[in-house]
Structures are given as structure tokens and as C-alpha cells.
Design brief:
By secondary structure, the chain is of the alpha/beta class. It has helices spanning 16-27, 34-47, 55-64, 79-88, 92-109, 122-126, 140-153, 160-176, 197-210, and strands at 5-9, 30-33, 115-119, 132-137, 189-192. It has one domain (5-196): P-loop containing nucleotide triphosphate hydrolases (Rossmann fold), CATH 3.40.50.300. 54% of the residues lie in helices and 11% in strands. The chain starts with a strand and ends with a helix. The chain binds cytidine-5'-diphosphate.
Amino acid sequence: MKHKIITIDGPAGSGKARIASYIAKKWKYYHLDSGILYRRLAYLILKNKIKLSDKKQIENFLAKTNTISPRNSIKLRTEKISKAASKIAIYKKIRNYINIQQKNIIQKELKNRGCVIDGRDIGSVVFKEANIKIFVIVNAKIRAKRRYKQLIDIGEKSIYAKILEEIKLRDNKDKKRKNSPMKVPYKAHIIDNSESFSNTIFQINKIIQKNS
Ligand code: CDP
């Protein structure tokens, strides 16, 4: 049997990665969090003292960089990196670079198992051919509350009102950018993740079983 691709897209802090990791665990799928690739690249650009607005230097940096690790790390979860990732995510060259990496990783994994990938443009652009597409929605206030708690948990000082503002700004940037804006992919199942996680899981299981 051909292995399946499941995509999970949605705005910042909507719980995409948690849903994807639940699916990966339950069905023994490989999980790729595409946001980590944008975050790590932003981290490396800042570490190399390159300005996030300096397209030319960023391109030179990409030309010298082979692959970006998709491994999560606490240093990638700060608000500084969240903001920097969404800043660089507007550049077409960066998106192309990351898309190639995602395709290489998934092509390799699909030989052995199904794959679940989460992000903003996964079902609409990167893996349009996916077997199941999910788009997660949660209102901005609930997302900001969850994000605030996550930041406190990793020891970052934060203010709820500021987090809410940052989330709204990032939503706007992700939705309005010219290259691969965040949108509900064609034929996607919309999941409301505002209630309990068990309620979300119930909806997810129903969709996967119906499409298996
Ligand atoms: O975890 P959170 O939902 O806050 O963000 P993330 O998924 O880690 O993504 C960080 C930033 O990377 C987003 O705000 C997007 O601007 C960008 N991104 C993207 O443009 N396309 C993707 N497929 C994934 C992330």
C-alpha cells in the first residue's frame, strides 16, 4: 500500500504540532513540523549577524547552507525567533529552499511510513496531493493564552496583551504575504481546536478513519 500524507495547516498557536504529533504516535507516522525549518533558518541568520531585511546576504547564506535540521529545540521557541521566522517567510527564495528540503525529507520517509506535516501552506502549496488535509482554527484570544503559558513554561518573561498583539500581527503577515499566504487548502477539513484536546482528537480520528 502506498503510504499516506496528512497535512495540518493553521495560524500561530492553533495547536497544529500537538495534533500532528498525536497522529504520528497513534499511526506510527513521521512528523515534520515545517515551522521549525523557518525558525531554525531565522535563528541561523540572526546568529550570523545578517539583517532579516538583507535579501542579498540571506541569498548568499542560503547558497552556503546545505540542509537545515528539522529537530525542535527550546531556543527556537522564543518570541524573538517567532517574529524573525515570519519575517523571513515572506521571501520566495527562502520558501523555495525550505520546500525543497521538506520534499526531500518526506520522499525519503514515505518509503517506510506515512507522514504528517504541519505548517501554513502545506496542504495548499507544498503537498497539494496529500491524502488528508486539515485546517485548524482557534480564536486569537485563546491562542494567545496558550502561547503565553508556553512561554512562561520555557522561562521567558511575557505579557499576555503583548502576546495577543504579536499573534494578530503574525496572522496578518502570514495571511497577506504574496508568496504562499496561509489559507484553507482546497478540500481541507476544518477542525475547531478551541475546546478540549480530547474533543479535537475525536474529530481527527473520525476524519482519518473515514478516509482510510
Ligand atoms: O508554532 P507557531 O504556530 O507559533 O509557528 P510555527 O508553525 O513554528 O511557524 C513560525 C513562522 O514560520 C510562522 O509565523 C510563519 O510565518 C512561518 N511558516 C510558514 O510561513 N510556512 C510554514 N509552512 C510554516 C511556518
